[in-house]
Amino acid sequence: MESKNNDLIKKIQSSIPDFSKGQKLIANFIINHYDKAAFMTAAKLGDEVGVSESTVVRFANEIGFDGYPKLQKVLKELIKSKLTSVQRIEVSSNRINEDNILKSVLQSDMEKIKMTLDEIDQNSFNNIVESILNAKKIYILGVRSSAPLASFLGFYFNLIFDNVRLVHTTSVSEMFEQIIYASEGDVVIGISFPRYSKRTINALKFGKSRGATVISITDSVESPLAQCSDHSLIARSDMASFVDSLVAPLSVINALIAAIGVRRKQHVYDTFENLEKIWEEYQIYEKHDGEDNDAINGKEDC
After folding, report:
1. If 0-12 CB within 10 Å is exposed, 13-18 middle and 19+ buried, where does residue 158 land?
2. Which residue(s) pair with 142 in the sheet?
3. Of 260, 255, 253, 259, residue with least CA distance to 160
4. Coil, helix or strand at residue 207
5. Are residues 67 and 202 in the same domain?
6. Same domain flag for 270 and 164
7. 121 and 259, same structural domain?
8. Which pLDDT score, from 0 to 100, does residue 2 have?
């Protein structure tokens, strides 16, 4: 993905001598401020550089795109893996309604789930379920902001399977030490979203070199994780300020856990039946069935 999008910038740069005066203004703005241009309408970009909206549309056609939205989409893909946290804050400040941040962020997350639902490949999902069910051992990797997603997946997979390893890492060497025995018949699941983790990418490449089936949970088929995977689950991710929006990825992971749970229904039932007895014996959870009358009657302070 990165080389493809970098080719766009190089193409614009090399074509500048042939552009009209207005097109040169657009080209220079995109080259120097593609992070901002990606979220501008054609009209707004035109206002920014002092040309008409139709000139912006013609510019997109001139460099090989069927309309300005197609160019904008490629620019958005480009910035996802390149923006620093500071740049993210600058870009998102123009996209979030500061008078109602709660509504803006929740609506954005809802849109990401809808787009994920519209675009996800059901056959790929089914193949991933089969691969996991047939795996000798399951390795789950996710670092930085993707670590909570990996932990969530690992928590529930450990209730379903007895062959799961959640890879905890603070260094590259530790990650490889924990997956060194991955081999044919095993599954390595890597989770990462822009800005993509090099540690996770390299670990997936290593797993593939060892003959394991590699599954990625990421944001695009052009993601560097997807490029080195046998199967990919694609979930839309975007940024709200410096924060990664991981609502859609978590929803997809939830669906994956549910699908596998259905396939191993009796095992899951037996496991939770035993766990309920353990939780009751060791008082793991707060009771709400009237047994703790003092607490219910307000005699015990919080």
Report:
1. middle
2. 191
3. 260
4. helix
5. no
6. no
7. yes
8. 43
Q: What's the rounded Cα separation, in Å, for the pair 209 and 204?
A: 9
The pLDDT of 216-243, averaged and rounded, is: 85
Buried b vs exposed e over 187-203: b needs ≥16 C-beta within 10 Å?
bbbbbbbbbbbebbbeb
Q: Helix 101-119 and helix 247-263: axis angle, to 10°?
A: 50
Residue 51 and residue 22: Cα distance in Å, rounded?
A: 6
Query: Which residue segment(s) compose the domain that 224 sits in?
Result: 114-263
Residue 216 main-chain phi, psi, to 5 deg: -115, 145
User: Each residue of 124-154: pLDDT tens digit?
Assistant: 999 999 999 999 999 999 998 899 999 999 9
Rounded to two decimals, the pTM is: 0.72
* Residue 191: inside a domain: yes
- The answer to whether residue 144 sits within a structural domain is yes
236 and 275, same domain (yes or no): no
For residues 209 and 253, state if they share a domain.
yes
CATH assignment of the domain containing 33: 1.10.10.10
Report d(CA 219, CA 213) in Å as an integer. 19
Q: Please name the residue that has the structure tokens 């060791």.
A: 282
Q: Is residue 96 in some structural domain?
A: no
State both tokens at 218: 């990421």
